[in-house]
Design brief:
This protein has one domain. It has ten helices and two strands; from the N terminus they run H-H-H-H-H-E-E-H-H-H-H-H. It has a two-stranded antiparallel ribbon. The chain is mainly alpha-helical. It is flat and about 60 Å long.
Length: 259
């Protein structure tokens, strides 16, 4: 399994890549907060938010098609929320359908809620994809640690990213071994085989975790995230961070003024 599906383009040399991870973390969370707090009817503000994030994507030289494809991963999860609330939200009926003996109606409040969830989730995911695509994962963890994120959470994220690939490779090898033995038979037998595979994977993961922990303790591991270079805030981080936050403030202020 490829290890660079998160930070595949983190080795480019654009202005966005050169920013300190802490700067990018702060402005990303500020962007998400501004998007979430924006009223759903202020479509002009959402258009400006999209213009801002699209400009940064172009400056970073990360392929826009790559960002678009990755952002579509939220569609199934958002649709589950949108579809149910589109019909369940009270309000004026916009359209109705007959499904067997049930009368199903779409309300204006349901449509507004669906738009609100969809646009905010998509813009937030775009910002997170830009963050992960322009920053090495180890640098992100270092930045989170220096921003006083609990060390336990940083270590969990670190181990998850480092060893999820090993588990996926283990699953692929087990599946190949199963298929090479002419996997078939009745449904219950197939389910039993899959259950045995899941149990085996759990035991192997547990044993690997014990071995990794023993090896790290033997090498003096103290729970800190270490990178080859130290993080250092520069003037361009300060100027860009302040400018970006001012831009978000102007968009948000304009939004609330015209409510």
């Amino acid at each position: 399994m490829k290890h660079s599906f998160l930070d595949r383009y983190s080795d480019l040399g654009s202005f966005v890549h050169r920013l300190d991870p802490r700067t990018k973390l702060i402005i990303t969370f500020a962007f998400i907060l501004a998007v979430v707090l924006t009223p759903p009817l202020r479509w002009q503000a959402f258009a400006l938010y999209f213009a801002v994030i699209a400009s940064l994507i172009l400056i970073s030289r990360v392929p826009p098609l790559y960002v678009l494809k990755r952002s579509l991963v939220i569609v199934p999860f958002v649709l589950m929320i949108v579809i149910f609330n589109m019909f369940l939200k009270p309000g004026d009926i916009v359209a109705g359908f007959n499904i067997w003996h049930w009368q199903v109606s779409i309300t204006d409040e349901g449509l507004l809620f669906s738009w609100n969830v969809l646009i905010k989730a998509w813009l937030s995911v775009l910002s997170l994809i830009l963050l992960s695509s322009t920053t090495e994962f180890s640098e992100l963890l270092k930045g989170l640690e220096q921003l006083r994120m609990p060390r336990v959470m940083v270590m969990i994220l670190s181990f998850m990213y480092r060893y999820i690939f090993l588990l996926v490779d283990e699953v692929i090898r087990m599946k190949q071994a199963r298929d090479s033995r002419n996997f078939g038979g009745k449904r219950m037998w197939q389910l039993k085989t899959i259950g045995n595979m899941v149990g085996t994977l759990f035991l192997r993961s547990y044993e690997r975790g014990e071995r990794v922990y023993g090896a790290m303790v033997a090498r003096g591991f103290d729970g800190r995230t270490r990178t080859l270079s130290n993080l250092r805030l520069s003037r361009q981080d300060l100027y860009f961070g302040v400018g970006f936050l001012l831009c978000l403030s102007l968009i948000s202020a304009t939004t609330f003024i015209y409510i």
